[in-house]
Amino acid sequence: MRHQTRTTAILVFNTVGHVLLQKRDNIPTILEPGKWDVWGGYCEAGETPEACAIRELREEIGVEITDSTALKFLMTRSVDGREEFVFAYVFEADGTPPVYEGERAEWFAPEEAARMSMAFGAEVLFSPEVVARAKTALSLG
User: Fold this and answer.
1) Who contacts 31 (Cβ-Cβ below 8 Å, separation ≥6)?
2) pTM value?
3) Which parts of 1-141 fold into alpha helices (H)?
């Protein structure tokens, strides 16, 4: 039996409801170079989607999640034959976290993110329904 590849996507919100996106490196050897994207990546062998999301946030923006309930599961979707687990998280510190993967990070209103042409079709994750579900799960107004 073939094992399906699993990935994670993490919608990182701030306390006012904006979402943090990463500008992917503009390197031709990576998928979707130079596009805006959400945080996340491939699950390692034996890794749960939750553990993957926690690891990816640590690797990509230096966030250490010690309370796994801070990460809220939203949905799964199929992306290019991969099963993607979508989570939401609130970044409560001021400013923008450092970026360890990608060119840079910027905060956007979810409505603006929904209109962008993002890597891997991630703009669909900012539909009003998904954003409302995320904000409710995160107790954001």
Assistant:
1) 119, 120
2) 0.93
3) 49-61, 110-114, 128-137
Residue type at 24? R
Query: Domains, the chain, ranges and CATH?
Result: 6-137 (3.90.79.10)
The mean of the pLDDT values for the chain is 93
What are residue 134's phi and psi, to 5 degrees? -65, -45
pLDDT band at 1 (very low <50, low <70, confident <90, very high): very low
Query: 104-108 and 6-13 as β-strands: parallel, antiparallel, unpaired?
Result: unpaired
Per the DSSP assignment, residues forming a β-bridge with 10 are 39, 87
CA distance 100 to 104: 9
